[in-house]
Amino acid sequence: MDPSAANAQAVERLMEARPVLRGVAPAREVIDGFDGRKLLHAGPPIDWERASGPLRGAVIGAAFYEGWATSEDEAASMAADGGIELAPCHHHRAVGPMAGIVSPSMAVYVVENDTHGNRAFSTLNEGYGRVLRYGAYSPEVLERLRFMNDEMAPVLQAALAASDAGIDLRALLAEALHMGDEGHNRNKAGSILFLKHLAPLVVEVAPSSGLAARILRFLGENALSVLNPVMAACKAMADAAHGVEGSTLVTAMARNGTDFGIRISGMGDEWFTAPAATPDGLYFSGFSSADANPDIGDSTITETAGIGGFAMAAAPAIVTFVSGKPSDAMAATLEMYEITVAEHRHFTIPVLDFRGTPTGIDLRKVVELGIAPRINTGIAHRQAGVGQVGAGLVRPSLDVFERALVAYAERYGFA
Prior knowledge:
By secondary structure, the protein is of the alpha+beta class. Helix 13 packs across helix 14.
């Protein structure tokens, strides 16, 4: 068994995956096994009893949105008693930012990997402020969700159906990296490129000019509008690298607000988990680290695919959001080359003479060098219903990587 050869195969599959946004559809229509009162959430598996405040708030909000409950107590009782089933997005080829909640009626982006044939899904991005993904569920949150899913989503689906080739998200990301994005918390260029692709199609298919204007304004005012399809693109790439016998490549990193978890390409669908760390960063006015929930969300799929915190050198302005100096962004990327197995041939960084982003986290290198992956992230309030309170940087515990490597050694006879 040669782990290095297996890793070369896995990372090649990751880099050659070509994720293309093909459509938008209700989750229940395109995600297998998504029926009844089931909600998908970010991170590794968790039950209601151990769920964090923002995850609980998002579950309550989704129960309101679906019409399953009309009060907080009713929704909480249903979740605690099993009346609402909770399952990880990753178990259904999906990803979700922060709490990551996907309910059956919510619209999802449908991303297809044209190289290997797999698909991935993500919800539509709500924008900033008090939003469901941060655990808020006030009437204005639900009203926004209804606009997104009932009015905007059908137009986006018709727009993508009118497109000859969909939106090539790998090409979009490559261009955005050259324009100052890193693909996780800084998506200003990518969202503009996304809007450029969609705008003429939306104008063409929208039933009224008023609705077209409202949709384009909603997308244009949200610098994170492209984040969710980008996450689905990264999920499609990482899934293409999963299941390579003998590979020590990390193919999923995810957090549910309580636990941080990873999956390894050569270790099947087993999760290795540890307590989620709390990010260090910048807080919005009136909030401090005392308000912060431990890290949450599936958006670490971006780092898993070689962008986000691994590509911060391409986006020095990200430090104005997550804290630090431009030199820190450069240092972050340079350090991540130490624990990865390749430089991405499609995602390159101008300031590094177009060197490819560090791609393919090698479990062995993380443990050998004692270097945990760098992640940049939003910070959720620890209480349900409050929302985002800041943004920052976080590293997961090395313990989870060490235990995964021990399990790998036992499975493949290296112990």
